[in-house]
Amino acid sequence: MSMHNSTVPGLNTPLPFPRPSAAIEKVRATLTAASAQPPSIRSQEQLWEISQLLEDLRSPAVRDAILHLLRALSERPLPLPDLAPPPLHLKAEPEVPRAPPPATAPMPQSGDAADLSEQLHAALLARQSGLTLNYQPVVDAVSGAILGFEALLRWTTPDGQQVPPLRVVDLAARANLLETLDFWVMQQAVNQARPWLTANPRLVIAINVTAALLSSPLAVSAVRALLRANGVSAANFCIEVPETTLLDQRATNNLAALRRLGLQLAIDDFGIGQSALTRLMDLDVDVVKLDRAFFTAQDPGPKQRSFLGAIVDMAKARGSRVVAEGVATRQDAMLAREIGCAACQGFWFAGPLSASAAGSLARSTVADLPWQAPQPAPR
């Protein structure tokens, strides 16, 4: 059987499968054209439509051929949609119809904010220009073993200014770039974690996602295509959202679909804002992350310990694991273990690490880790 020796632009190796049929050639042409385009809704839709064809393909040879093309093109970032959904507070109400503002019309900004937004847009288009991800370890509260990492966005502008993550999110929202930024973060996290998962298949990478992405009709297809393009399991990734995201029905529907794909769902910063114990019983999530505010007291008294213990017990009753955030001292780590948290995250163990440092840590054994498991607190 003859082998097809043409290559995808940007690759130097022939495609390792028999001469493709006309259908595969069409897929190849569509993927190549889409990857060369600037971000657009249509190019993104083409990629997701092709990825969904994999669901129905009967021929393993055709399926493997298309998967190879997707993986090859994923070596360079896939184009991202230039689509911004309307703000969450602008929901259609039958009795008083209200049209959202055009998605392409950014909110007015000051000079400095406008300049930063332009720089952020350029950074996303170039897939570089100072945008990076750091990774903070999530550690087993009993053994001290690494369970995974949380991906954390970092941005340094071309002039050396370090923009705080919340400021980046705010700029992206005002410039209608939030959905694009979400896709960028997910894509980077999946690409960078792929070799770690080969070395440690039990790792779970947590990715913070906003309602902008989760409300998009492309969200589920986008995530499915990204995971397949990288050959990784959905079970190794966890979507982190604030509790308020669950108030948006479109986001909730997409989250349910992502969980059906195998991704985990975590509620971030639980215990602040609208969070309540009664609300906890209604949440269908895999992970509850206790806000760091619970672990800032110098000497938590019996009432605080009882309150935290009640949260953990109720989460466990719902089948959720509890992660203590902001664990900065040995006392914090011991408290988290005492009240029954499954895992800890914070500077007592490690701060945010570069991708290379996180990759090295992911390959370490428990004995090689630079921290020790906390001992039980005295009773």
Task: Explain the overall architecture.
The N and C termini lie far apart (73 Å). The protein is globular, with a radius of gyration of 22 Å. It has 13 helices and 9 strands. By secondary structure, the chain is of the alpha/beta class. An 8-stranded mixed beta barrel has the order 1-2-4-5-6-7-8-9, surrounded by 5 helices. It has 2 domains: 22-74, no CATH class; 121-368, EAL domain (TIM Barrel). α4 crosses α5 (165-174).
Briefly summarize what is shown.
The chain is of the alpha/beta class and 379 residues long. It is 41% helix and 14% strand. Helix 1 (22-36) packs antiparallel against helix 2 and helix 5 packs across helix 6.
> How many separate domains make up the residues?
2
**CATH top level label of the largest domain:** Alpha Beta
Distance between the termini: 73 Å
The shape, in one word, is globular
Q: What is the assigned CATH homologous superfamily of the largest domain?
A: EAL domain
CATH fold field value of the largest domain = TIM Barrel
What's the tally of helices?
Answer: 13
How many β-strand runs? Answer: 9
- Order of strands, main sheet, comes to 1-2-4-5-6-7-8-9
In the CATH hierarchy, the architecture of the largest domain is: Alpha-Beta Barrel
Largest sheet: 8 strands, mixed, barrel
Helix percent band = 40-55%
> Uncertain segments of ≥5 residues (pLDDT<50)?
1-20, 38-43, 74-108, 375-379
Strand percent estimate: 5-15%
Helix and strand sequence? HHHHEEEHHEHHEHEHEHEHEH
Indicate the radius of gyration in whole angstroms: 22 Å
Whole-number mean pLDDT? 75
Secondary-structure content class: alpha/beta
